[in-house]
Amino acid sequence: MNRLQNLLKRFELHSLGKWIFLASLIGVVAGLGAIAFDVLGQIVVRYSVTQFAGYQPLDAAGEHQRFEYQSDFFSPWMIVAVMAVGGLLSGILVYAVAPEAEGAGTDAAIDAFHNKRGKIRARIPFIKTLASAITLGTGGSGGREGPIALIGAGFGSWLATRLKLSNRERRVLLAAGMGAGIGAIFRAPLAGAVFAGEILYSDADLEADVLVPAATASVIAYSVYVQSLPVESRFIPLFGADLEHTFVSPLQLPAYVVLAVVLFVIGAVYVKTLFATQAMFKRLPIIPHVRPAIGAALAGTFGVGLYLGFDRDPNLLGSLGTGYGVLQIALTTADQIGIACVVMVAMAKILTTALTIGSGGSGGVFGPSMVIGGCTGAAVGLAFQQAWPDLFTEPEAFAVVGMAGFFSGIARAPISTIIMVRALTGDYGLLLPTMLVSTLTFMFSQHFRLYHNQPPTRMESMAHRGDFIVDVLEGLSVGDLYQKNRNLILIPEGMTLDTIVHRLASTHQDYFPVVDENQKMVGIFSDDDVRAYLYDDALWKLAVARDIMVDNFLYLTPQDDLNTALRRFTSHNLDELPVLDPDRPGVFLGMLRRKETIAAYNHRLMELKQTGED
């Protein structure tokens, strides 16, 4: 590590080469972490629900099944038992070792970026990986993006801390790691890079500083991860390479507007159900270690009950696990499962995810969002096909658009989600309706969001509090605020201390510029400087202003901005600074007070806030 620090010292502080080098290291670790998480999750599936319940969850077309196993039995209620045990193990692991690893990992990374100076405890990514593999592998309803995003973010934070980088640099590497994890696990490097910058804020804002490091880390992580896959599936999208839907007519746009409204309503239900369930579990008078077991058991009971209650339709078990298998059907042959089935899967997925994640189970919320949005879109598409079969020939197109539109609204990340869904499906023929629906859901969903730790913009972020002060102060100049030299007392450099003492007694002025015979400022002293001589009156007739003044003083000009002024105030803990004429050296113009600088900043801040509200 010391050698690495010495190597980095050869680079400039903001060198692009340094960022690419560090981001590449993060990308390698995030890619390996994605492989480890994928393998571990599939091991848990193989030796839990498959071994004891005979259940093999359906996968997406582009997923690689690492452990083939053919079961000759199927015990639905055993799924519930396995899920309960998985929830218990996950809960004990998380709450005994790293309570921060509960729930969705992406929100924890966002919180660390804004409120914890980019710091994530080194143990959290490891605990999150193991706990999430157990939760998802035993049938818990959740996504993979949260754990793998936290793995990359955690390594980025750890690396920056070990290299003794600044808080800002640690935050950049944290975000780069988050993007790398997303880019690897979903095989979407561009989406991962944009996601890292966009997901940090709930309004239309972007953390531009992280884009290049995140892009580098995401590309490396993706390249590492795909090497673990067979050649035939290495570069195909997660949901296969056969999705080629088209946008056939502008007459379809009103239907997509309807889809946006439906997605907005379902999104509100999803978010409110998730957080209401979370609040309910926190109120339970039991130790938190067992809450995930209760949530998993309830989710399993509901999912299995739905399956048994509707003629043992295997598609309804998509409400458990990742649900990618039933989403794959909705994207390709939605008419085979019908409106009722996709609606039930979407609604059931909301409840099972709320029970799994809201109880403290470890997993992501992006994956379930895709299933909910895709199934909702498929239901809307099938309804329009039944009403106007000649115009709406591909209801599956609504499923693709629904995936993007749903998450864009609740996660407040429209651009990265559009790119993500395109990469997941390989379907680029629906860009126009996807942009329309994602924009509308983003606009409709302003008052609720999936990630509570997102501040609206950089202005509200603790990570940029100092940057915003600088931006505001740089827009104000010293010339607008300083006190002109009309009532200020100037002290000739030869004035005796006795005269100075008597003059101070009749004024409230705290700082006194000292001028020479040409009225050029040569120094300054404060009333505190004079007090040092008050108890030695023998010096009053001997000492003059030149003896007590500071001749190497800081000063400002009217053209300086208030950010410059504030830096000079704080560097020497001064309350006032003299203002001199830049064109006539030494000519004193007036004084600027620190409190007036702060007052100007507060006034300007209120103006900007009122402008934003208007």
TrEMBL record:
The chain crosses the membrane at residues 20-45, 77-98, 172-196, 253-271, 292-310, 365-385, 397-421, 428-448. GO terms for molecular function: chloride channel activity. InterPro entries: CBS_dom (IPR000644), CBS_dom_sf (IPR046342), Cl-channel_core (IPR014743), ClC (IPR001807), ClC-type_chloride_channel (IPR050368). Keywords: CBS domain, Chloride, Chloride channel, Ion channel, Ion transport, Membrane, Transmembrane, Transmembrane helix, Transport. Its main location: membrane. SUPFAM superfamilies: CBS-domain pair (SSF54631), Clc chloride channel (SSF81340). GO terms for cellular component: chloride channel complex. CDD domains: CBS_pair_voltage-gated_CLC_bac (cd04613), Voltage_gated_ClC (cd00400). The keyword Phosphoprotein does not apply. It is found in: Membrane. Coiled coil: none annotated. It is a multi-pass membrane protein. Residues 484-542, 549-608 form the CBS domain. This is H(+)/Cl(-) exchange transporter ClcA. It comes from Stieleria maiorica. The lineage of its organism: Bacteria, Pseudomonadati, Planctomycetota, Planctomycetia, Pirellulales. The gene is clcA.
